Input
Amino acid sequence: MERELAGLEWNAPGVARLALLLTTSMSGQNPIPIDTWINSYAPLANYTMTLASGFNNIVPPIDWLVARWFVFVPPRSNAQTIVLKGVTGDTGLNLNPNGPIVLPIPPLFEGGIGLTAGASIPGCRVMIF
Output
């Protein structure tokens, strides 16, 4: 993924490249089947959505059992706040309003990713790997 970054208050102007290097290892007598952890990480979901004003529980229509990464990319011109939330009502973590958000997903994850927006944000991209 490559995109031009905007907003000098967050970083210097230029081009950002996001690359994820995944190294796996395991110990034990019965290794997991190779197709469980080697699939070249093609996207399981890749779509655009509008983040609604307030709390959003993002639950893409995929099988979370094989997902490992959640990537959320707001539009480059976004100035609205985005807060990563555990549940509605908690303080959360303020995120860069126009920077990519990359979260690892634990095995057997069945919930959603909670994001609270200061106002509606159209043109957000969601990718699940």
About this structure: Strands lie at 2-5, 14-17, 45-51, 54-58, 69-73, 82-85, 93-95, 101-104, 113-117, 121-128. Residues 32-39 have pLDDT under 50 and may be disordered. The chain has one domain: 2-128.
